[in-house]
Amino acid sequence: MTKHAVPASGRGWSVGKMLGFSFASVLLIVAVLSLSSFNGVSTLLSTSEELIVANETDAAMAQLEVDHLLWAQNLSFVFTDSAVNEVTVQKDPTLCNLGKWLVSEERERLEAGHPNTSGMIARMVPWHERLHQSAVEIDHHCKAGEANSEEAKAIFSKKSIPALRNLQGLLQDIREDVAKHSVTDEKLVAEAGEQRALIVVFVSVCVVASVCIAFLVTSKVKKMLVSTSRSIAQASEAVASAAQQVEKGSRSVAESSSEQASTLEETAAAMEEVSSQTSSNLEKAQKTGAYTTDTIGAIDETNQSLAELKEKITGLFDSSKEIQKVVQTIDEIAFQTNLLALNASVEAARAGEAGAGFSVVADEVRALAQRAASSAKETGEMIDESVVKIGESNEFVQRCSESFDHVLQTSTSVRSLVDQVVVASEEQSQGIGQINVSLVQMDKVVQSNASGAEESASAAVEMARLAGELEMQVHRLQRFAGESAQARTPKVELSAAAPVAFDDYPVRGRAASPTLASLN
């Protein structure tokens, strides 16, 4: 099977790295665009706030100027309107709008944003107080009935009007200074245009960069997918070819195993005949071997053994008598133990709960005593039976002695027959052993071949299935990569004329055949 080289496109960045790079690039572009937009909007907001503050300050100064002009006009009514005989304007400099503004936070913010106005405001305070003080002096003349006196008019013309003009001049200076150091509407519009142009440029650059990155990454991924799909298609073809070769090899092995199984059947039939003859010879050897084993191995020691047996039987009879005495003693001890356990149970019952545990122990001791008595009784009965059997054994030994004399006479005639049968059986046994070893080896080889053929066939089927699945995945990958799947991977088709069914061959179960089983 040929090995397919890894495509060159797979040696660079992986798909995951390229996608990660593209996403990171897009995020970086979005971040840069967002940062530039935020910076531009922040600049516009700062400029707008500065312009709003300047406009509010200008409007406030203009309103204060208008208020005091109206204040002076109302004060002049004392001299121009005969119906007015008192001063109705605010005479306290701290209660008018300007007086309230001088002690407000708006003044502090103005001085903080425009330090040049601090001196102007400081110079404005005495003029403001002088203006309101002139109203107080004019009010004294009105209350004295001297509203149109020359002195009252002089106060208005020499104190009120100059103070008002100086106050107007300082308010105008403050407005001019604020306007001079603040952003104008034209500048705000210009900055907004610059920020819009900058954002348009940034957006254009980001869009072009994103399109380029997307095109490069898509092209690279597509090339990798196409190359990979082609490599997989080639591998699928190789797998299909290998599956067909494996299937052919499995079929060849199966046919060979069938032929070997037939030969093994013929050999097994021949071995059945040999086995029958061997069984007949072995029967003769077993019958004669019983005679020779009894005679050759035991005749020389029979007489001495019988004498020793008689002595041992006599000693066994005496020992049985002694054992009977011991059993009687055990029976008596068990009886006394039973009585003691019974007394202990009675005493434990009298003791109540304190003797409950001892009562259980006493019951167990009593049960053990009863079991010991029962065992002693059974042992005595067995010993009695043994004594009877010992007597019978003594008689049997006597009869055996007579039988051995007869065996000694027949062993001589049987020995020659045994020697002939043993020699023939040994020769046949050696031949059968060699044949048996060969058959066992042949059977193992046949089984191994059959097992290998079965595994190979299963592997071929599995490889065929995997080749089909691999073909489907290749087509999906090709469709995903945008490549037309014209070169289709050929499907694996195993031969259906003679399927590899190993259960049909006689090789299966050969080790369990009666012929080989009898030989083993």
UniProtKB/TrEMBL annotation:
Residue ranges annotated for the Methyl-accepting transducer domain, each copy included: 235-464
One annotated GO biological process: chemotaxis
Gene Ontology cellular-component annotations: membrane
Record keyword Magnesium present: no
Transmembrane segments: 197-217
GO molecular-function term, one example from the UniProt record: transmembrane signaling receptor activity
Keywords, in A-Z order: Chemotaxis, Membrane, Transducer, Transmembrane, Transmembrane helix
SMART domains linked: MA
Listed InterPro entries: Chemoreceptor_zinc-bind_dom, Chemotax_Me-accpt_rcpt, MCP_chemotaxis, MCPsignal_dom
The keyword Membrane is assigned to this record: yes
Family: Belongs to the methyl-accepting chemotaxis (MCP) protein family.
Stored PANTHER family: METHYL-ACCEPTING CHEMOTAXIS PROTEIN 3 (PTHR43531:SF11), PROTEIN ICFG (PTHR43531)
Protein name: CZB domain-containing protein
Organism: Pelagicoccus mobilis
Taxon lineage: Bacteria, Pseudomonadati, Verrucomicrobiota, Opitutia, Puniceicoccales
